[in-house]
Amino acid sequence: MTDVIDRAKKSLGTSSDAVYALTARLIGECHRGRGTLLDVGCGAGRLWPFVQTQFETYIGADVLRYDGFPASADFHTINLDTGNVPLADGSADVVAGLETIEHLENPRAYVRELVRLCKPGGWVVVTTPNQLSLLSKLSLVLLNEFSWFRGGNYPAHITALVEIDLRRIAAECKLENAKVDYSRHGRIPGVSVKWPGFLSGLIPQALSDNVGIIAQKPA
What is the pTM of this model? Predict the structure, then answer.
């Protein structure tokens, strides 16, 4: 447990704004109600400002409560490698797992837990680093490692998934109406500069650092 907490602290409980914007876009295209958002692997809760107009309630769950997590939100401590979120089945209208699945030993068990927590007719959304990007493919060819799974990211990042894996896991969990999108924001190989937004929007799979999937739990 100590190792898990140490790895979590290094992440600072945050992702890029592009990941939150991607998630907000996916939710906005599919979720038509308000209700409750449950963020499993919530970090500091930075998703909430991007989607709070779409919901009435925000709940977070993670291995530790980070500084900055919204004071008004409920929080539950959970080690996702060894336990379940202490909430009842169908607790939320939308259940999100942002940049968390790549940290876990069993991605399928994680998605099954998200599905359990989702109300019938609700939505599950997951994001992860995009291994199909030009940056990641070049890293694999030249260095024999995916970009986000190189030595400096281990042992925090341990499970690399691509779009077809996300679609297969969603189907295995009986989720429907799956939709995949990319962050449309990514780093140019070899430099710290990002691709121009208009270009990454034209070929998002190749030029995005992150990928997301949203799918619906049958009513």
Answer: 0.94
